[in-house]
Amino acid sequence: MLRRGMIMLSRSSAIKHVAATAPISRRVVSRFVPGEETADAVRAATELAALGFTSTIDHLGEDTLAAEQATATVKAYLDLLDALAEKGLADRAEVSVKLSAVGQALADSGDTFALDNAAQICAKAAEVGTTVTLDMEDHTTTDSTLSILTELRRDFPMTGGVLQTQLRRTEGDVRDLAYEGSRVRLCKGAYQEPDSVAFTSRQEIDRAYVRSLKLLIDSPAYPMIATHDPRLIDIAAVLAVRADRTQDSMEYQMLYGVRPDEQGRLAAQGNRVRVYVPYGDEWYGYLVRRMAEKPANVMLFLKSLTSRR
Ligand code: FDA
Questions:
Q1: Residue 309 binned pLDDT confidence (cut-offs 50, 70, 90)
Q2: pLDDT tens-digit profile of 150-162?
Q3: How far is residue 254's CA from residue 149's CA, in Å, rounded to a whole number?
Q4: Alpha-helix residue ranges (DSSP H) falling in the chain
Q5: Mean per-residue pLDDT for 129-133?
Q6: Inside any domain, residue 116
Q7: Is 121 inside a domain boundary?
Q8: Which member of 111, 135, 138, 206 is catalytic?
Q9: Exposure check for the chain: N or C terminus, fewer CB within 10 A?
Q10: What is the mean pLDDT of residues 10-34?
């Protein structure tokens, strides 16, 4: 219930306006979002690299309905990639892109427009020596996103994809993507989905995660295990040993500011750990989703709306 309510809250433009103009405590926002500018993202990636982590940087924003906005998002990514290259971070920082932020939802030719835009970002990433992962959004976009991924991989084979274990279709998609060199991020899924297409109980989603994880780890693909769930992280470690995987043949991924101790523990054991770093002025919806996942943070967030510090 709370999760559903929070997700509805994330889409309320009235409440978003209040939150964006209220004296929000920087402490709460900056715990999950390092800032609004390219320089903030680069600073976070630099700090993470110094601690032994790689990163994947997301320019916040989604569901763009204006072509100019999509073009501005592409420019933000190109600038970001140049800035990462300038700081010598291209081998340790990649970018995550939501296709709806680069035009997928535009009427008529949204798919083609998003493909062209994503290809520009992939080309720049390849030029500076890094990669792109396409975030996965709600289930109505899955087919389009996977076919754009297939197109992009023809020229940019390192482009990563994301599969969500809450969707009933996902084991099939894992099988399709479980080939040599295929970078696949496995997550539970952050969107409110109907019963008809998704598992809705936590147990079912977790069991589905384990099934897909096993398929992926036993395959020649490159698994990117994106979860903060301690049980699933333990299971991944066991499956990796059973499959004789080396530590550099897979990676763990977590969100910026979430379970930093666990991120450190995994890295200290020699695992590859990539941190997902969101930045930009569209932080509100992202922040509310993180609240929905961890209700203990809700009070902190609500208090911050009225705090002057
Ligand atoms: P879940 O939220 O079920 O929590 C399980 C357990 O993890 C908790 O019981 C607790 O023990 C621990 N935990 C979780 N959050 C914690 C916190 N804040 N503090 C302490 N412990 C905590 N989604 C999507 O739909 N498309 C996408 O492209 C992506 N991309 C993505 C990239 C990366 C790197 C990550 C980590 C996640 C995503 N997601 C995503 C989001 C993902 O689908 C999911 O919504 C969140 O990761 C939350 O699910 P968890 O697997 O972390 O477990």
A1: very low
A2: 999 999 999 999 9
A3: 22
A4: 2-10, 13-21, 26-32, 38-50, 67-86, 110-128, 142-155, 170-177, 202-217, 230-242, 260-268, 283-293, 296-306
A5: 98
A6: yes
A7: yes
A8: 135
A9: N
A10: 66
Residue whose C-alpha is closest to residue 197's, from 236, 164, 222, 239 = 164
Helices 13-21 + 283-293 axis angle, to 10: 100
Contact 45, 89 (CB under 8 A): yes
State the Rg of the chain over Cα. Answer: 18
Q: Do the beta carbons of residue 252 and residue 266 sit within 8 Å? A: yes
Residue 249 CA to its chain's centroid (Å)? 20
Residue 161 DSSP class: E
- DSSP β-ladder status, 93-97 and 54-59: parallel
pLDDT in tens, 184-224: 999 999 999 999 999 999 999 999 999 999 999 999 999 99
Residue 3 lies in a domain: no
Q: 60 near 97, Cβ under 8 Å? A: no
Number of other residues whose CB lies within 10 A of the CB of residue 247: 12
Give residue 108's pLDDT.
Answer: 83
**Which position among 92, 153, 183, 185 bears the catalytic label?**
185
Residue 107's pLDDT band (cuts 50, 70, 90): confident
Residue-number span of the structural domain to which 197 is assigned = 34-279
pLDDT at 63 over 90: no
pLDDT tier at 308, thresholds 50, 70, 90: very low
Number of compact structural domains in the chain: 1
Would residue 178 count as lying in a domain?
yes
185 counts as catalytic = yes
CATH number reported for the structural domain that contains residue 181 in this entry: 3.20.20.220
- Residue 13 CA: distances (Å) to CA of 8, 9, 20, 253: 10, 8, 10, 30
Q: What is the pTM of this model?
A: 0.93
164 lines ligand 1 (CB under 6 A): yes
Is residue 252 within 8 A of residue 225, CB to CB? The reply is yes
255 in contact with ligand 1, CB cutoff 6 A: yes
